[in-house]
Each structure stands twice: as structure tokens, then as C-alpha cells.
Amino acid sequence: MARGRRAVAGCQGITRSVMTTMKSFFVPAVLLLLPLVAFGAEQSPNLLINGDFESAQVGVWEKRTPDDKERALSITTEAARSGKQGARIINKGAVISRWRQGADGKLKVPAGASVRLVGWIRTELGDEGCAALRLYCIGEKGKILSQPQTRAVRGKSAWKRVSLNATVPDGCDHLMVYLELEKATGTADYDDIVLSVVPAAKPRPALNDLVLWTDAPADDPTVVSLRTLYPDRLVIVSATETPPWSHCRGAVVFARKPGTRFDFSAIEAFAQRGNPVVLDLAVYAAMRGVQLRNADILVRGVSQQNNGADKSVRVTSTAANAPSLRILREDRVTNGFKAGDSIPWGDGAGKRWKQRVLDGVSRDNALAESPEGGALLVSETSGKGLLLATDLTGLPEPLWNRPGSFNKYLFAGNALGGTVRYGRHYPQRLKYAEFVGAMRALAAELPALRFQDEGPANGAYRICSLNLGDPKNPTFLVYGATHGSEWEPGYGLLTLARRLASQPSAALFDTKRYALKIIPFLNPSGYDLNTRQSAARVDLNRNGSEWWALFKGRDSNSDGVWGPGDYDWKGSGPFSEPETQTYRAICERTPLHATLDFHGNSGGPGNNRVVILPLTARDDNEERAAAAVQAFNEAMRNRYVLQQANRPAVAQYDIEMTHWDAQRPTLIETSCKGRYGFLCEVPAGYNGTYGLAMETDIVIETCLAFFKAYQAP
Q1: Do β-strands 385-390 and 276-280 pair in parallel, antiparallel, or remain unpaired?
Q2: Is pLDDT larger for residue 605 or for residue 580?
Q3: Residues 595, 425: Cα–Cα separation, whole Å
Q4: DSSP state of 561
Q5: DSSP assignment of 633-670, as one string?
Q6: 22 within a domain of the structure (yes/no)
Q7: Residue 98's pLDDT is what?
Q8: Which of 92, 319, 538, 604 is the most exposed place for a label (fewest CB within 10 A)?
Q9: Residue 8, pLDDT above cutoff 60
Q10: Closest to 642 in 3D by CA, of 591, 687, 608, 672
Q11: Residues 194, 251: one domain?
Q12: Is the dihedral of CA 631, 635, 637, 639 positive or negative?
């Protein structure tokens, strides 16, 4: 989607959740909100007085903007949706008018609690402005800590249900609820407003079951990354102390000082009792009497890059030229990879790289080796447990554009907690024709899958899909790469199709009641060209029909005109492109139930780890999307750490933000009109396949959470 885009305020309603690992840097005042319970969970009573406007206590609703020549606010029978009365705002000019409750400071909810604001709005407005509900979280001295807003209601609209989920931020003294008519001329009615505390999910207890035995200080980069990856598991023990072996179910051991010694017999005994132990290469070398070698590698033909996204990080070699780790055999530690797969592995910049390798290791124990010679991953069965040797101190911490360290903790995570569940590494980025060939081969291999030619794309290209279930049933549509350079989700969707069709007993998707249509690449020519736009130089995700005439982009190529080739050029007219015409035809002939649209980028606050809600979807779409976000974050807990572009440090991967889309002609506004769905931004646009095990895992977990939230109970 749009790099550098900032979540928009006002009528689009932003909410944001600040995760534990993100507390060390600046957070905008407008926070968003990740719910703590699944869709449909029982909520507490209404915290608002006279939320239905039927009580004689009319005065609890205050006119934040008093009546004057520009506006009139009233509690009237003409504004009732249910009962006898509702609240009304009439704007005679394009001004901001508001009812509110809570300015007296009595609307109190504890920090950290999850609340839900729901209400109904009816409008008779002009072309500009909108009506919405807003929740203010107020701190000391009236400071606004956050002010999330529901979806905006515009123009002429019958009664529409709007809602938001919010987490009360730290330092919040009280809440206020506003009924707003913003920069609009006309009438807006409000009724049945409910603010409730959502019962919190049962807290996940701290397990404290993973020993980190080390001489490193608390600010050591490896210690910080492991603490980030396993915040509720890690017990850090000094090298001079004895770990609480009897209370733990796994261990990580490394040293920064050459003279540090560990009790190898205790480590061995712990593993033999059925526990996994991850050792740095140096610790394993000392334990087994093999040689640790620091290999200096001169890389020839290096091209350098930093993709321009983060000028503060050092330039590294491309994935194609980086020294590699080659998988020798498949194992639970190498889950997600096949024998013969290679990924970049090492520390370096430009032509000079280093790898730490082990010499003298039995080939029966080597899981991966360096093309330069020596073992890079060593796995031993020890009694009922496992000893895994990997590089914990020689590799830098995982960074989005440092291919040699991107997967630093993946193999250790597989040993300790099953990091890769569904994802898969792909050795190369296929041409589109090759990818379509892989789709056809998969459908031929698995009878449950149907390959379908959906229709034309630019030039000789065709848009193709994989389908599961009865096509007459309500259908889930999942697609990727509307922007061709955001290509990684397509590989996740191919992997998803294989998993669903080959393991129906896993009950990951209900084929008895629903059908599934998967389109890995909606922009085939852009994929082959590795460009955002299609070969016709059109941004396909600005070529829909909703608000096409209103949308104005920017002259990104500085040629003096907004037109073909510019970043968000919308084309000559709605659905002017063959790809979008095929998309529209799919929407018209398919009994769509819900749509998931994947986009991606290298990261940055507001650009990644985000769900965007279409304005045209059903009224209860926000609640279901919230449940999907919660399910995804729970599934991804303690699995991946990565420092993304323009981020200050490594963080666990999760969805940290949800916001409403702007009024723009995105395609999902068409497929979700009167239906369900959302757009999700994930890691994508990298210069190689080195991150695909993680990226495909993220895509699949997003889809599974999407199915869970939008399939009927």
C-alpha cells in the first residue's frame, strides 16, 4: 500500500494500540484500539446515562457547541430510532457541532480496560462533512490522551450502526463521549448510544519456563531480542549462578567473554529429561570439543542497497550475494524449509562478510552447512530432549534489510516453541508464468482445489485463481499484489491453498458452508516488472468506482502532471483497466461473503502491521475485524522478532493498528459493499526470498484469523 502514508484523523477515525515492546519511543496521541475479546462476547451494562434519550435526565447530554445562527441541537421525537426520542444536530453551515457526556469527570474506567462504543446515526447531509461518534480519553489537567472515532456517516443515509473498540490508556482520569457533526451542512440524528466495558480475556500467566544462562548484561542485543521474543517465558540467570532447572522446560546458553564456563553436565542432564536447549556455537564447541572457526568471506559482484527507507541503517549486500546457510535435512528445527534450501547467513557489509562455523561435527548431527565449509546448525538428540547449536553472538539482530541476520532466531524458535507453523521458504521469485504453472500443478495434485482463469489482465496476462468448496456457497475472496511490487503475500496464499486442500481434517476452513477463492496476483504485469503500477502505469487500487471522481493523487515523478506512472494514478476512469474489470466481474458473478486484500511494505509506523477497514462494508464489520486482529495476535505471540524499517528496535510481529479507510477508489470498497472484509498490510517488497518463511506464515495466520472471525458460529 502507500509507503509514508500516515493514518488520517477526523472523519476517518483512527485508533491505535501501543504494544509492550514499543513503549520506549514516541507514540502519537491518537491511539488505536485492539479488542480484548472475540466478536459477540457479552459486554457490561451501559456506562452512559440516558444513552437512548428516553429518560427525563436530558441534562446529562451537554451541548458542547451551543445553539447559534450556525447550528441547533435538540432532543426530539423526530430523531428517534427506537423509543420516543433521539438526539439531533442541524447545521446551517459547514461547521463542527457536538453533543457530549462525561465532561463532569464521572465517566471513569480503569487504565488498560477495553471499552466499546456503539450507536446509530441517520444523516441528511450535503456532499461535504460527516457524522460520527468519538471517544475522548482524558488525563491530568484535561490532557487528551486519545480520541478514537467510529466510521463516518456521510451524505443521505438511513440509520447506520457504528462502533469502535478502545483500550483505556495509562494515566486516563475519565472518558467523554461525543456525538459529532463535522464540517457538514444538514441534519444528523443519533440514538441508542452504548459505552460498555468489554470483559477482558483471561490473562495469560507468565510461564517463566525458559532459562537464559549467560554472562551478558541486560542491554546485550541478544538478551534484548530474546526478552522481546519470550517476554512471559524468559528467566535470565548469571553464568555464575545455578539455573532453576526443575521449573523450566527449555534453555538458551551463550557467553560474551571467552573465559566463561558453564556446567555442561547440568545442561546435558536437563536436555535428557526431555527439554530443548539452544547453545551458541562457541558453547557447543567447548562442550563437544569441536573447532569453532571465524570465516572471513570476500563477496564478489556485490550490489549495495538500503531501499531508501531507513538511511540510518548500514548498507548491506543483496540477498543474492550474501554468504548462505544451506539446509541439509528436514527436521522440526528446520520446519518451513526443505533439504537444499539456502538463505543468507552471516555478518557483513559490502564485500566483507563473516560466518562462524563449526568444524569436526558429525554429518549425522549437522542440519545446515556453509558453502564455505563447516556446520552452521547442529542438532543432537540427548535422551528425550534436544541440543541445538546456532549462532547467537556472531550475527547481528534481525533487521528487515540485513538478509544475513533476518532469520537469526527462527531455528532456535522452532526448537523452543514452534516458530514456523504454516510458512514455507521459496528458493526464488518465480516469473508470473512459472507461478501460474505452480498453481496448475497444485490443483492437479490436490483434487479439492480447482484452478480457474478469471479473466484478462494487461497485455497477454490472465488473472488466475485457486478455489476450494462449492462455488454456489457464500464465498471468501482472498487476493494479493494489486500493487505488483508487494509480491510476498502471493506465495503465502499458494502455501495456504496447499495446506487447506491437503489437510481438510484440520478444519481451518469450513468447506461445507463456504467457498474460498484465492487470487495470489491481481496485477500480473506489475509483479513481473516489480512495480507498484500495472504495465499500463496505473495504480489498480485507485481504479475502483467508489469516490473515483473525488480522488486526487500527486505528481510523484515530478513531470508537472498527475498521470500515468505516478504513484497513485487512478486511470482514465473507474474500472478502466482489464485487471479491475476482471475484478469487478468476479464480484458480480460470485456470492461474496467477505474479502481480504493483502498489501505490504518494509515497515514503519502506520505502514505495516495494520488493518484498514472499508467504508462500504456492513455495520458490524468493525467488530468482526477486531476479533480477527485479536485471533491473529494471539496466534503470533512469541514467534517472530524483527526490526522493521524506521523502527527503533526489534519487536514481536503483531497487528498494532486498525483504522478506517479514506474516501478513495480502492477495489475492496467494491467487493465489501454491503458485505464483510478488510485490507491488511504485511511485510513485503523485499529484494529476495530470504524472509518468505516468516512472511508466508504471517499471511496464512492472517487468513486463518479472518476465516475464524467471519465464518458464522
Answers
A1: parallel
A2: 580
A3: 26
A4: S
A5: HHHHTTT-EEB-TT-SS-EE----EEEEPPSS--THHH
A6: no
A7: 98
A8: 92
A9: no
A10: 608
A11: no
A12: negative
Model pTM score: 0.86
Mark whether 396 and 439 lie in a shared domain. no
Length of the chain: 713
Q: Indicate whether 266 and 384 sit together in one domain.
A: yes
Residue 440 belongs to what H/E stretch?
Answer: helix 432-445
Confidence (pLDDT) at 646: 87
Confidence of residue 43 (pLDDT cuts 50, 70, 90): low
Considering Cα of 471, then 474, then 478, then 479, what sign does the dihedral take? positive
CA atoms within 13 A on the CB side of 78: 8
Q: Are residues 567 and 444 in the same domain?
A: yes
The pLDDT value recorded for residue 605 is: 64
* Residue numbers of the domain that contains 540: 432-710
The residue out of 156, 172, 198 marking a domain boundary is: 198
Give the pLDDT score at 425. Answer: 98
pLDDT, residue 662, reads 87
Q: Are residues 595 and 494 in the same domain?
A: yes
C-alpha cell, 490 = 502471493
Place of cell 426530539: 76
20 within some domain:
no
Nearest C-alpha neighbor of 110 from the set 34, 31, 166, 174: 174
CB-based contact 120:155 (threshold 8 Å): no
What is the per-residue pLDDT for 369? 97
Residue 186 dihedral angles phi and psi, to the nearest 5°: 135, -155
Rounded Cα distance, 599 and 522, in Å: 11
Quick check: is 139 in a domain? yes
Q: Measuring CA to CA, which residue among 317, 498, 303 is closest to residue 404?
A: 317
CATH at 309: 3.40.50.880
Q: How confident is the model at residue 58 (pLDDT cuts 50, 70, 90)?
A: low
Q: Using 50, 70 and 90 to split pLDDT, how confident is the model at 318?
A: low
DSSP E strands in 208-285: the ranges are 210-214, 234-238, 250-254, 276-280
Closest by alpha carbon to 466, among 416, 501, 426? 501
Count of domains forming the chain: 3
DSSP secondary structure letter of residue 97: E
Which pLDDT belongs to residue 24? 29
Each residue's pLDDT tens digit, 586-627? 999 999 999 999 999 988 666 788 999 999 999 899 999 999
Pairing verdict, β 592-601 and 676-683 = parallel
Residues 364, 216 share a domain:
yes
- The CATH number assigned to the domain holding 508 equals 3.40.630.10
Give the bridge partners for 187, in sequence order: 90, 124
Question: CB neighbours of 156 closer than 8 A, spacing ≥ 6?
Answer: 123, 124, 125
**Is 32 part of any domain?**
no
Cβ atoms 665, 546 nearer than 8 A: yes
> From the CA atom positions of the chain, what is the Rg in Å?
27
660 or 440, which is more confident: 440
Q: Quote the pLDDT of residue 658.
A: 85
Question: Comparing 88 with 645, which gets the higher pLDDT?
Answer: 88
Nearest to 333 by CA among 366, 286, 358, 310: 366
CA atoms within 13 A on the CB side of 630: 22
Residue 505: pLDDT band (50, 70, 90) is: confident
338 and 294 housed in the same domain: yes
Contacts of residue 451, defined as CB under 8 A and 6 or more positions apart, other chains included, come to 439, 440, 443, 444, 464, 465, 466, 467
| pLDDT surpassing 60 at residue 309 | no
Of 148, 147, 63, nearest to 99 by C-alpha is 63
Domain final position from 148, 175, 198: 198
The predicted pLDDT at position 603 comes to 83
Q: Are residues 252 and 401 in the same domain?
A: yes
